[in-house]
Design a protein that fits this description.
mainly alpha
Length: about 160
């Protein structure tokens, strides 16, 4: 297998991985070992990309609200005056994070749409001869760049 073919297989494997497929199945589909898939995942930071694509705003908001609830429970059950005194400050910080997440909803929704589009392309590639591995590689490159930029701007 030459370098170009290897890169095409790697890109196809990445698409499968980002769509949620298990490494063992990806290895079988693209005809490489699980070790190769593991190496590609590590070198390409696929896990971080997949996590960025799969974390939704509602999930983040729910986690923050659970954190607030837990903080309230722990603080109110505590007899520690300093914990009670600092509760307001901690609650306001958590509330500010929730508010920022709500303001960034447009960016997260865009990421969700891009993820759905990427999955659709992956399925479409199986029946559409115009969606070659080279084209998918180019499209995926820009989708990944877009998602990375959106995640970075959401965190700020």
């Amino acid at each position: 297998m030459n370098h170009r073919e290897s890169m095409q297989l790697q890109e196809l494997a990445k698409i499968y991985y980002l769509d949620g497929m298990e490494s063992k199945i990806i290895a079988e589909k693209v005809g490489v070992s699980e070790q190769t898939i593991s190496s590609w995942k590590s070198k390409g930071n696929w896990s971080e990309l997949r996590a960025a694509r799969n974390v939704t705003r509602p999930e983040l908001v729910n986690k923050m609200l659970r954190s607030i609830d837990k903080l309230l429970d722990e603080t109110l059950l505590s007899d520690d005056p300093s914990a009670i005194a600092t509760m307001a400050d901690r609650l306001s910080k958590l509330a500010a994070v929730v508010q920022k997440l709500d303001k960034k909803a447009g960016a997260v929704e865009t990421i969700e749409v891009m993820t759905a589009f990427s999955k659709w392309l992956g399925y479409r590639m199986q029946t559409d001869p115009e969606l070659t591995p080279e084209r998918m590689k180019m499209i995926q490159k820009y989708l990944d760049l877009f998602v990375s930029e959106q995640v970075t701007s959401t965190v700020r």
